[in-house]
Structures are given as structure tokens and as C-alpha cells.
Amino acid sequence: MITKRHKYQLPEGYSLLQCILRARAFLKDPVKWISNNMDRFGGTYTAAIGFKRKLILTQHPGFISHVLKENHKNYQKSTISTDAGATYLGNGILFSNGAFWLQQRRLIQPAFHREKLQALQFVIIKTIKESIEKCPTGNAVDIYPFVHSVSFQVLLRSIFDIPLSPDTFREITGLFGNIQEFLFTDTNQPARRLLYPFTGERRSTARKTQRLRSIIRDVIHQRKSSGESKGDLLDMLLNSTYEDTGESMGEEQIINELVVLIFAGHETTANTLCWLLYLLTSHPPVLQQLQADLIETSLPDALTNERLKATISEAMRLYPAAWMTERVTLAADSFGPYTFPAGTIIIPFFYGLHRNEQLWENASLFNPERFMHSEKTAWAGHYFPFGAGPRMCVGNHFAMAEMCFFLHAFLTTFQLQSTGHVPSMKALISLRPDKVILNIKKRVLDKAAV
Ligand code: HEM
């Protein structure tokens, strides 16, 4: 056990040898493994990942807030996530730090302001309505591939408002899936890097990255040569200029940012929707009440439907797509009884924070009402589905709009029932269910109500 190191007071936890011996348990089910350790060590613990390098994992709300908000200037993303991400997905805001990150964030954030999103609302709704028609129905449908595909289409159409051919769509989906899988393994099993010269994984991923970038580059060239203005996210990036120089963003940087938006935006939303459909079908009274509410609401008004928003919030509490994040200390820091040197990696464990019995009444219960009858201040300090502080999710309003419109269209079109299947958690870069198998039938409208 690590208790004291030099002048620093790290939390209790595991030495390097203990971490190596437990690596299999971690890789098999990271969320369960970390949750068990949180119970064992009281919500914060240390894991040594090198002779000098230490991680502090925490689900303490104050510690998480200290790192992401109050003392954020002393923290940045660590090379563990930024190096591989920037190599294979480009140096967009998700994988950059410091002045460059701030400059890019200032340029991109305005595109996601609520008023700007109203312009995208039409595309989002249209894409969802067209897709819903193609939803598979039956007694045991795994809804994950369908929801993933809709969410991907919504994002791609919001970024480039052009119809992509089914082949191009499939190709982009496949490329992202492969690159993402490689990144996850690369980050979690660094020892595998020794094998890359023999397996050729690194080279093949680099080729996929180049292919992805060339598809996006072609779309940008088409847009520039057409002179058209679509009001989509691509137009916004093409037209934006840096505050200090007044210059536009270079083409390669626009590609970096578009790749990052697609990467950060598609699976997180799809995963949240799928967990939510699983939770709703396992709680029929909650589902029925929500459906009754939505039938009385028009699709555009879904965005302000309190019950719907509370239900999404509750699903993100129990299954936060971003189940953890990471930061590294720039200078030595302290929180509560702990002190730690520069270079310590802090892992805010959102999954554990959101299920902490001391912070949430009946924490494991799916109960959307908890978000309906309480002031935001009651949970704002311990609920971070979109992160917190200056690096908080830039796409949160977009994600909420997409989820509200999708759920309205889906729940008013279909009758859903649980099949009793319980999804397993796959804690990849985001937390996804392996499958969500549901009984799905078209709703028969009550004639009197038509
Ligand atoms: C339910 C859906 C989503 C969830 C739960 C989610 C969650 C998060 C979280 C927790 C972070 C902060 C990570 C950190 O602090 O290290 C983040 C960052 C980010 N998200 Fe999302 N996100 C979602 C959807 C989206 C969408 C739809 C987009 C874009 C269209 C997007 C783009 C981004 C970007 C670019 C960042 C990096 C921001 C920065 O570092 O400045 N996200 N997201």
C-alpha cells in the first residue's frame, strides 16, 4: 500500500506491482474494478502506473470540482489521451492544451450556442424523421445499431448538410469504429506497442486516418468550389476568424476539428439513448407516463418538455457516457488531506460520483422525478455528465436537442417492451451497452384521439 511518498501525502492505493498483478481484472471490467476500489478506499485512491507515475482516481465531488473548475489552470489533459488522439484523429480541441486549445475553443464554441443550434434544428428533425421510418420492429430487436446509425447521420448532416451516399456513410462509420478501437487498446494496454512493428496495427490505423481525412477534405473542396452556404457546422468553421489576427482557420485544422466533433459527438449520444431505452423498458410505469406526456407535445416542443429532460438527465446519471476523464497536474497541488507532485494524473470517476449513496437518495434506482422536483443547486455540485469547467462538453446543447427530438419521434411511433435482456457495460472510450434487445411494435393510434 502507498501511504507516504517523499513530502507528498498521496491517498492509499496500489503499488506498481499490485497494479500489474491486477491488470487483468481492470481490463475485464474497468468500471466494476474501479467501483470496488472506491468502496475499499473510501472514494479516492492511488494507482502507480510507472516507477514514478501515479494516478489518483476519485469520485469525491469536491476533488473533481477542484481539478476541473476551481483550480483548472493547474491542470491539463495528459499525454496519455492527447498523444494518441492527436496522432490518429488530429490536433483538434479534444486533444490539445494551453493557448492553442483556448484559441480553438473560442472559435468553435459560438457554433454550439443555443441560437445557432436553432438553425440546425430543421436538419436534425428531418434526419430523425426519415430514419425512424426505417427502424426495425419485432420481438427481439437489438436497437443499438439503429440508434448508433441515426445518431451518426444526425451529426454528419449537421456538420455537412449534404446527403452522403450509403457507401460513404458506411465507410466513415467503419473508419471511425476501427480508429476508436485502436485508440482504446493503445491507451489501456501500452505494452502492446511493442508488437506494432509485427502486427502492422499502427500503420494500418494511420492509413485509415488518412482515408478519413481525404473524404472530409473532398467535402470541403466541393463546398468551397460550389460557393454555396448551408448554415451547417462546416460553414461556420470555414467562415470563422481568429480574434487576434482576423485570419481564417487553415484547411488541415478545420479537418482536425471536424474529425474531433464527429469522434466526440456520435457515440456518446447513441450510448446515452440506448441506455435510456433499456431503463425505460425496464420501468414500464415511467415509460407509459413519458409516452403519455410526449403524445400531448409537438416534436419541436420536446426540447422544453420537463419530464423528457429529467428522464435523459437520470439516464446520464446512471450511465454517464463519459464515465471518467483525466487531467495531469502542472505544479504540485493539494486537496483535503492529500498533497501530490506535478505530473500526477487525476481521474475523475463520474460513474461512481453519480451512484454515490451519500449524495443521491436510492442512488441505484432509476427515478427521473428526482430531476423534476428539485432545484438545480441540489445536485449541480455532484452531477457532471457533460464534465465541468472550461473544458465542459462543447456539444451539450446539441446532444440534448438530438436526444429530445429522437426520443419524441421514437416513443410516439413505437410501443416498446422489455425482453428481460440486461445489457452488459462496455467501458470503452465511452460507456456503451453491448446490446439493447427490445420488443418493438408500431403504435396503433387510438382513433378517437386522431
Ligand atoms: C450525451 C452526449 C454527450 C456526452 C455525455 C458528452 C460528454 C462530454 C464530457 C464529459 C466532456 C468533457 C471531457 C473532459 O472534461 O475531459 C466532453 C467534451 C467534449 N465534447 Fe461532449 N458529450 C456528448 C456529446 C457531444 C456532442 C454531440 C459533441 C459535438 C457535436 C461533443 C463534443 C465535445 C468536444 C469537442 C469536447 C471537448 C471540449 C474541450 O476539450 O474543450 N460532445 N463531452
From TrEMBL:
Keywords: Heme, Iron, Metal-binding, Monooxygenase, Oxidoreductase. It comes from the Bacteria. The keyword Transmembrane helix does not apply. Pfam families: p450. Gene3D superfamilies: Cytochrome P450. Signal peptide: none annotated. SUPFAM superfamilies: Cytochrome P450. The keyword Oxidoreductase applies. Belongs to the cytochrome P450 family. This is Unspecific monooxygenase. It comes from Niastella koreensis.
